[in-house]
Queue: 2 jobs
Job 1
Amino acid sequence: MKANLLLLVSMVVLGVLGVCQGGSLRKRYYRRACPHAEEIVQKVTWSHVSSNPVLPAKFIRMHFHDCFVRGCDGSVLLNSTKNSTAEKDAVPNRSLAGFDVIDDIKSQLEKTCPGVVSCADIVALAARDAVSFQFKKPMWEVLTGRRDGRVSLASEVPANIPAPVFNFSSLNQSFASKGLTVHDLVVLSGAHTIGVGHCNFFSNRLYNFTGKGDADPSLNPTYAAFLRTKCRNLTDTTAVEMDPKSSRNFDSHYFVILNQNKGLFQSDAALLTNKGARRIALELRKSADFFTEFGQSMKRMGAIGVLTGKAGEIRKKCSLVNA
Ligand code: HEM
Ligand SMILES: *[C@@H]1O[C@H](CO)[C@@H](O)[C@H](O)[C@H]1NC(C)=O
Ligand SMILES: *[C@@H]1O[C@H](CO)[C@@H](O)[C@H](O)[C@H]1NC(C)=O
Ligand SMILES: *[C@@H]1O[C@H](CO)[C@@H](O)[C@H](O)[C@H]1NC(C)=O
Ligand SMILES: *[C@@H]1O[C@H](CO)[C@@H](O)[C@H](O)[C@H]1NC(C)=O
Ligand SMILES: *[C@@H]1O[C@H](CO)[C@@H](O)[C@H](O)[C@H]1NC(C)=O
Ligand SMILES: *[C@@H]1O[C@H](CO)[C@@H](O)[C@H](O)[C@H]1NC(C)=O
Ligand SMILES: *[C@@H]1O[C@H](CO)[C@@H](O)[C@H](O)[C@H]1NC(C)=O
């Protein structure tokens, strides 16, 4: 009897702990303090995306970079100061963009409910809404309640953002260090179904893979020849669609081309070098599976290292810590 009670109590305690751990973010966190917050983010995001179709790629990558460095705390948005060089000025900062649009969303929110909605939440919501514009409905659920950090350091970028030359075990290690699984790694790599990559991040695969003037044998030779027409030499920095002909369409086509050995980066190709990952990559060619899984993995990515409760602050301007 006593043992059963103890079991019950410990289950309740563990349950509550579990909720606090994964559940410090909530659905519609701003329901009371700013009832129209999520509508405003969607409206402003959609108005920008309608005239700027590359924005979905910019925002989803911005959210990824935010979450992988110091957790999803809006640190990617901060400007450099006299004292410190911020994440966005890391070399290479790999062409992050869309900061002006985040500022616009923030200023609209500040008009309606000043000092309430965090910049970290804006990034998470805007990434979802930008991608969802194409479908005219939210494609995944975004929990909210993140607060903003006060620190952004370029020096923390290299150790936290995986590089396009990473092999499978380095990718797995990078994601595991953020509490993400191999499954999340494969699913989230599907974000490369939209957007572009610059030649300098993969031209070694076209011209000098092992230092003998050779191409990467794991890259489809026909595709490599096509890419050489875009990237003329090892220093060319032309931007190339990652999912050709479908690079503004959020769909499962990345996994179709990946399985034809047409992944653009070594890190894309690396997903086929592990048996479990390859199995997942094959599965995700089905768009219904990709959409479902992507939403769930984004939820896990969006919860990395978040500041909640009394931690951090709600910035007044997204590019600046509060005075
Ligand atoms: C798995 C490890 C990853 C590596 C090594 C990687 C690397 C890269 C690189 C090198 C670029 C090209 C940047 C440029 O040339 O401007 C890129 C672009 C992009 N990445 Fe990733 N990435 C990874 C995972 C992710 C994840 C998890 C997401 C989001 C969930 C993401 C979203 C994007 C998007 C949308 C672009 C296109 C950006 C644009 O068009 O400006 N990536 N990635
Ligand atoms: C942050 O930097 C951007 C680009 O240099 C600039 O446009 C913006 O005004 C800066 N933000 C603030 C609050 O000064
Ligand atoms: C810059 O550094 C000085 C000296 O360490 C410090 O007093 C000041 O608060 C810092 N300013 C900012 C904006 O971090
Ligand atoms: C990237 O860094 C360079 C040099 O540090 C800087 O001039 C550029 O403005 C940065 N790009 C963005 C989008 O912040
Ligand atoms: C993956 O890359 C890391 C870092 O470069 C290296 O130490 C490791 O041996 C590589 N693993 C495989 C299986 O090639
Ligand atoms: C990925 O990394 C985690 C953490 O280091 C490890 O437990 C797991 O075995 C790795 N998975 C694969 C498939 O290598
Ligand atoms: C290819 O790589 C080798 C070894 O790193 C180097 O010696 C050679 O100069 C490179 N070729 C070109 C065209 O850059
Ligand atoms: C590489 O190609 C670019 C684009 O075609 C060209 O502008 C540049 O001069 C080339 N560089 C070299 C070293 O050939």
Job 2
Amino acid sequence: MPATSSAPLTAEEILQLDRAHVWHPYSSFTAPSPIYPVRSAQGVTLTLSDGRTLIDGMASWWSVLHGYNHPFINRALTEQLQQMSHVMFGGLTHEPAVRLCQKLVALTPEGLDKVFLCDSGSVSVEVAMKMALQFWHSQGKAEKNRFIALHKGYHGDTFGAMSVCDPVTGMHHLFSHTLTQHYFADSPKTRFYEPWQPQDLDSLKALLQQHSEHIAALILEPIVQGTGGMHFYSPEYLRGARELCDQYEVLLIADEIATGFGRTGKWFACEHAGISPDIMCLGKTLTAGYITLAATLCNHRVSEGICQGEAGVFMHGPTFMGNPLACSAALANIELLEQGHWQAQVRAIEKQLQEELELCRTLAAVADVRVLGSIGVVELRQPQTLHKLQPALVEQGIWVRPFGKLVYIMPSYTIAPHELRQLTQGIYRVVEKLSSEG
Ligand SMILES: *Cc1c(COP(=O)(O)O)cnc(C)c1O
């Protein structure tokens, strides 16, 4: 082990220290899954500490939109660093935050005009839920204190967010005794490209009919149910859900943490249905994968209600709220998006994924192939372990991290056709081998 922190570690030393002390997402110290020290990242290429390079298909969990180490975002951050990296947001404000909030209001669906900046996606969901509760409290309807969420939904790992994740297929059933019990509607069955089946909304309608006087809000991921299974559903469901929320006086929270900023081919997935939620969560893609930052937006009705309520203020305030570095990364991300290349990039990725991932459909191990925007999914018939798949994918020179039955990618919009082909071919070879093993 090196004596000083300045001596660079070898790949072996990094692995050894990691195994000894470091938790990873959903990780075990006793049955660790394969792990790879990475030295640097450029464009869509990860360089491992042992010198191997991998084409990145994950964009660091949806978030890296313009590739790693982007000169424009690097410059924005460096310039902000010279001014101030952080300052408290209680009683103080600054240009990066106000400019970012102005942009977010302009870009998001009509009506959303107040922005709460926070640290991570899960926290933005907590904030959204608290906004809904405080709103109804202020309306003299404190009994509206439960939520409806969708089966197969995922909204994060903190306690409030866990309570609205799918209670069975979600990853949180272990905690169910500690969590507030909410209501769960059937997940939409009509897929994005299929003819609409109106009975999809029956379950939601029945819950609202029965319980609306106790329901503060419906929370859902618009169009793409991500971590809960990578399902792409009909915009008609979203339109119908908006109408039902209005009819039964329930707020609508759209969790666009994964879908925001172009992933599905629109700036925001709500646009597929032409609807505006009362509250919207943004995260993951907000800083193009540079620094953690999330935002919860709400409309005038919600903000007015909260401020006229008993508390008189919205009761939340993270220490690192409105971090200027994060805000300037988000502004640079949005400026790059506003240059307008992303629409053509996402369309090209969608077309190439449709052609190339489709080849996997004939393989015995494959149950389904689906593509929407820059998201490509190969669903297997059987769940597979990372122990088996991860090294095989790395051997193909690609970074793809499957979970359960899903081998999926959502690359940076800037990926070149030959790089994307390397990803789809690598996935094909690994799944082909799996198929031949029976
Ligand atoms: C990732 C994700 C979250 C949680 O965000 P974190 O930054 O991981 O806390 C919430 N909702 C959706 C839809 C997500 O994809």
